[in-house]
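Why does residue order matter? Because the sequence determines the fold. Keep that principle in mind as you read this record.
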Amino acid sequence: MVNFPIGADDLMQWVSGAHVHVGELLSGLGDEQMVRDSALPGWSRGHVVQHLTDNARAFERQARFALHGQLVDMYDDGQRGRDLSIGRGSARPAAHLREELRLAQQALEETWNRLAPEDWGRPVRFRNATVLDTALARWREAEIHAVDLAVGYRPRDWSLPFAWHALDFLAARAPAGVRLTLTATDHAFTQSLGTGSPVEVRGAVRDLAAWMAGRNVDGPLHTSAGALPELGPWPPDPAD
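Structure:
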């Protein structure tokens, strides 16, 4: 499903590091700061943290059941259950939100650490993919939502491997009817996506990744069109 060449061992280090960093970003937030707006419309920081907690629990369950050859839904009661949990949990005290996130991330990493090399290829219901794909998805969740917390972490702070992976995964957002060419101005990188009228977008790798992820960029993007093209929807999943 994902073409970015990264092995399970390296990926676990990247995800674990992202978990630690999210915890550090949240460490200084009190109740008042947690209920303030995040960078996501309609979501407070508490919404973001509760979602990260629920998502970690969901991926832990995907891996745990996959070990027994079973496929389970991401969330109880699907999208509705996901949304209810985020809404109800978002207003909890900051200390509670931080601790629940820490425990959920710890449980996820402990389950992953029990996997044998061949287990990473086991199927899961999430996106009809594999356990390894859920780890890549968790990397995206942690890094992108760390930006959404609006506490100073920006796309410019993403590692280069993460930016490459995000661009690979988000290629599915290329607009319909457009031959979109992404050209990096800070690395030797060009990626062409889709078919149709040619449009080039130029900028730093991390800014290209941020734009494809629907986040504000830190540096300028230049396009051969009059304006940046409208991207397609996030790669679909009913409850991710």
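The chain has a mean pLDDT of 94.
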